[in-house]
């Protein structure tokens, strides 16, 4: 099912989580960005259109301002994201320019999706960039986001962006193969749920664990995001982004994941 979804989709949103983007040292994993950019470029050369929703501003900030690592004050965290966003875009630009593709930065808040004029402008900008062969890199505007306007996690942001762009497919790359009936990091007998059709039933039958070190979202947010996307007819794939050539492997049927379908 996964290879068919990727083959049939023309407009694909790819979400990269913080734990996928970060290396073991907690800083930007440049080799991962290079690898993903190469795979995305290959898909684009096949006529597909790609939009990336990238976490990692805080990770990138820590890569630059390591002395702020222990500061928890909200102003420092927002300042860290401001520094990190520049470094994150620099890293993505470097990865894609090797394949002669330009990137564009789009920073959003929840308010942007709730305002009709802003939503129309966002949609028009997305279509213009993609039609010109430019890869939009979307992230939440953490520097100005507070609780009242914060989207909350980039799984939700990716789903909302997929709806905004009328995407054909949403791929959520995380640090897990997909939805399991219980946490595979704690239970060796955990079973991967390869297809989800009924969200209510799935929530009843799985044990949802805690979020991880960098990400703001866990399995619950991924379920919510997939359900939101699917309510607009957009199938969603959840897969492990740390696997070798993850995008290519999914397209070839060599890597498993969870597919959310109507």
* Helical segment count: 11
Rg, alpha carbons? 17 Å
Q: Strand order, biggest sheet? A: 3-4-2-1-5-9-10-8
First and last CA, distance:
13 Å
Low-confidence stretches: 147-152, 211-217
Major sheet attributes: 8 strands, mixed
Tell me, what's the shape?
globular
Number of strands: 10
Helix content: 40-55%
Notes on the protein architecture:
With 262 residues, the protein is an alpha/beta fold. It has 11 helices and 10 strands. The chain has helices at 2-8, 18-21, 30-45, 57-64, 74-97, 110-114, 116-131, 154-165, 199-205, 219-230, 246-252, and strands at 11-16, 49-54, 103-108, 135-140, 169-174, 179-180, 192-193, 195-196, 236-240, 258-260. Helix 3 packs across helix 5. The longest helix has 24 residues, at 74-97.
Summary tags:
11 helices, single chain, two-stranded antiparallel sheet, alpha/beta, 262 residues, globular, eight-stranded mixed sheet, 45% helix
Short recap of the structure:
With 262 residues, the protein is of the alpha/beta class. Helix content is 45%, strand content 17%.
Chain-wise SSE layout:
Blueprint: H1 2-8, E1 11-16, H2 18-21, H3 30-45, E2 49-54, H4 57-64, H5 74-97, E3 103-108, H6 110-114, H7 116-131, E4 135-140, H8 154-165, E5 169-174, E6 179-180, E7 192-193, E8 195-196, H9 199-205, H10 219-230, E9 236-240, H11 246-252, E10 258-260
Parallel strand pairs: 1-2, 1-5, 2-4, 3-4, 5-9, 8-10
Antiparallel strand pairs: 6-7, 9-10
Helix pairs in contact: 3-5, 4-5, 8-10
């Amino acid at each position: 099912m996964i290879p068919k979804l990727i083959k049939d989709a023309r407009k694909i949103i790819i979400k990269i989580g913080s734990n996928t983007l970060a290396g073991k040292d907690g800083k930007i994993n440049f080799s991962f960005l290079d690898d993903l950019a190469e795979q995305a470029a290959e898909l684009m050369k096949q006529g597909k259109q790609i939009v990336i929703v990238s976490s990692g501003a805080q990770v990138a900030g820590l890569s630059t301002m390591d002395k702020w690592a222990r500061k928890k004050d909200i102003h420092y965290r927002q300042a860290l994201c401001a520094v990190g966003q520049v470094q994150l875009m620099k890293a993505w630009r470097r990865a894609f320019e090797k394949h002669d593709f330009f990137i564009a930065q789009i920073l959003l808040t929840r308010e942007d999706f709730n305002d009709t004029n802003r939503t129309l402008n966002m949609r028009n900008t997305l279509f213009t960039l993609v039609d010109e062969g430019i890869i939009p890199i979307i992230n939440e505007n953490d520097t100005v986001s507070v609780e009242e306007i914060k989207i909350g996690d980039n799984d939700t942001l990716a789903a909302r962006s997929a709806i905004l762009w009328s995407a054909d497919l949403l791929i959520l790359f995380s640090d897990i193969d997909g939805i399991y009936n219980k946490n595979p990091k704690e239970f060796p007998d955990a079973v991967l749920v390869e297809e989800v059709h009924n969200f209510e039933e799935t929530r009843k039958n799985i044990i949802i664990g805690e979020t991880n070190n960098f990400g703001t979202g866990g399995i619950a947010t991924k379920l919510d995001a997939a359900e939101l996307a699917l309510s607009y007819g957009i199938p969603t794939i959840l897969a492990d982004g740390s696997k070798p050539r993850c995008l290519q492997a999914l397209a070839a049927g060599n890597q498993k994941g969870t597919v959310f379908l109507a």
